[in-house]
């Protein structure tokens, strides 16, 4: 295994430069020459784009939103407490804290600090970034806390005593997982499942754990019992326990690739029984029930169940060979399943209908036989985006409801299924939305497919093609883009007179698995055709014109905007490319890239490279062609998408004399920023770049 596949950025060595790629030296993440190039680019950006009064004002407005103590504290109930992770101007790395539901209902809840990440970082001399915590039921006295250095995906896991609020040192028997991609998962007071880097052969070619083990307190990690060992070309191996009282079960999960998984039930004697569903299906379980969400059609005993459907059956009966399946949801031409949430007595379905949420409540038959009762969720908002999750699925039928749209501050309510919601919290108004309106339109793609998009504009907008317009997209990994309130976007773009557009292109999940699968691998071009069709539709409607139209996207969305830059430079006045994939010949050899071949294909296969090269921006770049101004941003500490992607295309364009702005944050991981100061700076770069080029 090469260093570039371990998920670690520090010390990664680049291969020798070739005639085909003379910029391979920029893949050496912390190489002296590469970092010297980065520092030179960063200095140019900070002395120009980031040196103006307008930039300082924009960053301050963005920082005020991020630091606001009036934001809704997102909470999770564990036992008698509601836990929240919070950042503000005084706690830039964050506080993990807790309160009670009674206190949370008040305007000023009383918070008890459990872990101060800023204080911890200062005392230990580390740039800790919070990655989450898992609390052991039912005593709720112990937590496994994950912390990352600088925001990378690789992190450490440490045991925290929730009574003393002190870490339990390994010398005192505390669980500690050294830095790696992976995790620990509670089994009981003295046992965890561990899947992490334990030396040669323990990680997959994607840089994730290949071996799942059971680890007992007070014993060396290397002596932990091996439960399952995947193949080197698997994506991720893990193990976990479902702690539902009366239905405690243990599992081993094998991710073969994106959209291909196996789930095994782990018996007391460590034998494994596979849950016999298609590898492309998603499996869920609660108490006596097993849920199967299909990505592909599935024929069982002569009956074919459609892709995108949700099926239910008895868990034990299915494991024993029974195939009595009940269809809980089946998509039609406009609907898809956005989520399913169990409460103690019900299953709440969140359905997207032309990218608008609807909530439905299903109640299983009490005796396990018969029909599931159906009703609509009372009090659920009818517009915008609605998310729902259980407060405590083992203890009650209460759910959290979060409602949001582009112009209305987000609200958080609590509701008992079947009753009206109780509004608990509202996000403050961060920008003046008066005179703004939201519309949904459909563009026609090259193959005739109707592609929805949301348009946020002033009601009195003159359709003369002069409005600075920001078009945003993603189009990958079955991720849906739905309306949401953003104080930063409102202050830095909408309030200044800009138009904002979100394109729901193929590759996403807005219409379920089929919408995603239509743009996989050799059909990737459809995502880019969809996006360019939305751009053309905006011009045809008179909303904007080429000189005033900009695009922005990150990660897979960075690949999207990179392709807009290289395939359709004639459509845009400015392009923002954030933490992107761009070199699709090398992507599967860099960091987690091998895990994405189900999405893009294998560039080492000559037949697949034939179509992959058609959407590889690094290879599509033509030094003799005219391109719009472009901003590239990335992070040195990104150990998911290699910073070499952004570096190499930016360098090629700089060498060709193109209009290139580049900034690489030293911290931040794939999110691009490790704290609110960095986040506001990176966001301000994008907004000010677009304003200066498009207005």
Number of helices: 14
| Number of domain units | 4
Structural class: alpha+beta
Provide mean pLDDT, rounded: 94
The radius of gyration over CA amounts to 25 Å
According to DSSP, the number of beta strands is 39
Task: Tell me what the CATH architecture of the largest domain is.
Answer: 3-Layer(aba) Sandwich
Q: Numbering strands along the chain, what is their spatial order in the largest sheet? A: 32-33-35-34-36-37-38-39
Name given to the CATH homologous superfamily of the largest domain: Alpha/Beta hydrolase fold, catalytic domain
Region (Disordered): 1-22
Pfam family, one: Peptidase_S9
Domain Peptidase S9A N-terminal: 14-412
GO cellular component, one term: cytosol
Question: Could you please describe the fold and organization of this structure?
Answer:
This protein is an alpha+beta fold and 695 residues long. The chain has 4 domains: 304 residues, Rossmann fold; 159 residues, Methylamine Dehydrogenase, Chain H (7 Propeller), CATH 2.130.10.120; 85 residues, no CATH class; 98 residues, no CATH class. The chain has 14 helices and 39 strands. The strands form 9 sheets. Strands 32-33-35-34-36-37-38-39 form an 8-stranded mixed β-sheet, sandwiched between helices. A hairpin with an 8-residue loop joins strand 12 and strand 13. Helix 2 runs antiparallel to helix 6 and helix 2 packs across helix 14. The longest helix is centred in the C-terminal third of the chain and has 19 residues. The radius of gyration is 25 Å and the shape is globular. The two termini are 49 Å apart. The N terminus is likely disordered.
